[in-house]
Write a structure and sequence with these properties.
There is one protein chain. The protein has 240 residues and is an alpha/beta fold. The protein has two domains: 91 residues, no CATH class; 141 residues, CBS-domain (Roll), CATH 3.10.580. The protein has nine helices and eight strands. The strands form three sheets. Strands 3-4-5 form a three-stranded mixed β-sheet. A three-stranded mixed β-sheet has the order 6-7-8. Helix 1 packs across helix 2, helix 1 runs parallel beside helix 4 and helix 2 packs antiparallel against helix 3. The longest helix has 22 residues. The radius of gyration is 24 Å and the shape is elongated.
């Protein structure tokens, strides 16, 4: 067996193993089937999908269409083997979720005046802020939608009195603000899996907050929304 064929097959099989792991080792472990499933969930696979599909055709030609001995109907070019190794390296060491998070995270205490938070929405162009109490316990995500909902409930004769209104007064108006937490060293695969699972369960995940240990009551190191996931595709696309 030529060295290029051997390196290609070894690397291809390692990628195949990664695809099995990403899909929970299903009974049907056909490479292309796993590739199709993974494409729906993971940006790294989406970016390299077309190449990997072509590599699968080459692999089939190598394995099933050998003419005799070490004489193959097709052999991989050195550049093809190198590209396959690059993809395998990305799967071995996927980017950390923190690379795609909004940082630093702006957050407020439960006693923060609502007027101050509204100013922050306008000043920073951010649509949601984590709220904590004085013991650093996470209380919830205060969003612009939640504030609008609270204002509509409190409207009297076209006016709302914001004096002495603080963050904790508005939090009950949040409509099941679904938030999950991950460790700051979690991979982008784990991050995408959280959003994919919430979609499968028909619940809208507002954000994933990254803390040092993944504990909700640790201070936030990064926050990821569905909009931030777009950066994952763009980043991987630039690397391809």
């Amino acid at each position: 067996m030529s060295e290029s064929v051997e390196q290609f097959e070894i690397t291809f099989n390692q990628i195949h193993q990664h695809l099995k792991e990403l899909n929970g080792f299903p009974k049907n472990d056909n490479f292309v089937e796993l590739l199709q499933r993974s494409k729906l969930k993971h940006s790294v696979i989406r970016v390299h999908f077309d190449q990997l599909k072509q590599f699968a055709k080459l692999r089939n030609a190598i394995v099933h269409e050998r003419i005799s001995g070490d004489f193959y109907i097709a052999t991989p070019h050195e550049g093809v083997v190198e590209k396959l190794k690059q993809i395998k390296q990305t799967l071995d060491q996927p980017p950390e979720a923190l690379q795609f998070a909004t940082r630093p995270v702006l957050y407020f205490k439960e006693e923060t005046d609502l007027t101050h938070i509204v100013e922050a929405f306008d000043q920073h162009g951010i649509s949601q802020f984590p709220i904590y109490n004085n013991d650093r316990t996470f209380l919830g995500l205060l969003t612009n939608d939640g504030i609008v909902r609270w204002l509509s409930q409190k409207m009297v004769e076209g006016r709302v009195n914001l004096k002495q209104t603080v963050a904790k007064d508005v939090l009950p108006s949040e409509k099941h603000a679904n938030v999950e937490f991950l460790s700051s060293n979690a991979t982008v695969f784990e991050l995408e899996e959280r959003f994919e699972t919430s979609l499968d369960e028909n619940r809208k995940l507002k954000a994933v907050i990254l803390t040092e240990s993944g504990n909700p009551d640790d201070l936030p190191m990064g926050i990821v929304t569905t909009w931030d996931l777009i950066k994952v595709d763009r980043r991987d696309g630039d690397d391809s």
